[in-house]
Amino acid sequence: xxxxxxxxxxxxxxxxxxxxxxxxxxxxxxxxxxxxxxxxxxxxxxxxxxxxxxxxxxxxxxxxxxxxxxxxxxxxxxxxxxxxxxxxxxxxxxxxxxxxxxxxxxxxxxxxxxxxxxxxxxxxxxxxxxxxxxxxxxxxxxxxxxxxxxxxxxxxxxxxxxxxxxxxxxxxxxxxxxxxxxxxxxxxxxxxxxxxxxxxxxxxxxxxxxxxxxxxxxxxxxxxxxxxxxxxxxxxxxxxxxxxxxxxxxxxxxxxxxxxxxxxxxxxxxxxxxxxxxxxxxxxxxxxxxxxxxxxxxxxxxxxxxxxxxxxxxxxxxxxxxxxxxxxxxxxxxxxxxxxxxxxxxxxxxxxxxxxxxxxxxxxxxxxxxxxxxxxxxxxxxxxxxxxxxxxxxxxxxxxxxxxxxxxxxxxxxxxxxxxxxxxxxxxxxxxxxxxxxxxxxxxxxxxxxxxxxxxxxxxxxxxxxxxxxxxxxxxxxxxxxxxxxxxxxxxxxxxxxxxxxxxxxxxxxxxxxxxxxxxxxxxxxxxxxxxxxxxxxxxxxxxxxxxxxxxxxxxxxxxxxxxxxxxxxxxxxxxxxxxxxxxxxxxxxxxxxxxxxxxxxxxxxxxxxxxxxxxxxxxxxxxxxxxxxxxxxxxxxxxxxxxxxxxxxxxxxxxxxxxxxxxxxxxxxxxxxxxxx
Length: 678
Prior knowledge:
The chain is an alpha+beta fold. It is built from 9 helices and 34 strands.
């Protein structure tokens, strides 16, 4: 029984040195490339006793390796001891962990201040032994320029006393404390290794006895494998040839590798498992009773015989008492973790080339297994044959007015009867032994059909014209709203001229609108989310036509109370509209005209009143200049009195008309609210 171990083991960079097992090479023997941009790599090999194998990965691949690595040892007594890799702790944190902190990129003076108290031997130029007291900054004034010059001095505590040495005179500083010197060297080593961002080793250690087989598998990002096709339409039996384009971008040669290519898009993501994570923790300050201040107390609120109760809010109590249970830990590994790749696969496929792919379903994916072992050196690519078989292909011409208004395109209807799925890719088309053009195809499942086009058909001309007509099919009134139903018919005529000596099958793509109904012809060849497809056979040297008619029925809601009266009169005079609707609409128009007439009369009175106000202002100014007792002043007074009489009559008329307007509007609204005709 095999043991399956899924290990994610983080080992400290400064681990203790132990006796190393024998180093062995476990080569890659199987590769499964997915069209979603990931690949499964499987290493298989023989080991004996305790052994370690080292795999090299790019730094950005480590997360995928940690997420997906599967390690198996076929021995019942053997197993996997550890999977070790260099830690990716943030550089600043790693540098701060040493006795000498280089995280802030200190200069020499700052570094020596960090080493205060350390015993050193300084060559300046004589050898002086002592302990670092500090590095001090000294400011001097240049006598020539008057500028400040900053210099540094190293203060040492020696057996003879404190000595101050100019930093400029120091040639060498040696740390006596070997442990401290080691910390500095380790920090420098971390700085050095942090620059190696390209490749990281992963060591897998096996323990056990005797010779046995081990297997290592993992998923990492890989280039998407691509497909390209060759379609030969010569003769009565078209033939399709398909190739897979594969890149080996790894740092190892593929020698005798069993290669599988999987179409489909399994969900895959990257999660950062390589960088150490630190959870921020709260800072709790200890209570310092020694520094308490003197307390003062207010007067008591309760007597000895009184009971004081404190209520805890139920919501707060609930928050305090409700502690969520820890989620159950998911099982690690299991014998089923590698079921997809653990067993040998048997497939029945199509053979046509010297090296051919076998096809088969894997869950919701479709897999091509390359029958012969693949030899592909690192950093190289290869074209591998997938399909070489006859295919059902019908030659047609494809017309779409939005693509080319005058000519169709040469094309074909492909039916995938190859026994396997066809991934999307370019197609080079050959006809009569010559290059005919290029096409492109999306993913084509087994048994499905698909159109392709590869050249302009210059021997067929198409003239496309359109016309439309709109008729009112129904009119009704519902609670003051005129609802007009119109049917619009759009007709597109395609006149086709075949100038060749051969019969042409034309596929016409006509725009599809789900709001329109197809009237003519009754049937279509195919329907997509954008196009109707119609088939039209055009005899050699003849002309033919195809008429496509669609209709759209729409309702237009017109508010009788606000719509233009002249436009409403058009519906009253239209003899095709139901008589009851026309009579009801005519009554509504009369009521609206009555309201409009009254509003017109009211406007005339208001204008007259405004003119009288202006005239009175003028008369009063003239009256003040000539005087009331003058003959002219008497005339002005008489006219003012007459205007005042007219004011009174206008006010009475305005009040009467306002009442009439209100009554007329109520009559109109009540009529429309109760009006349902048609």
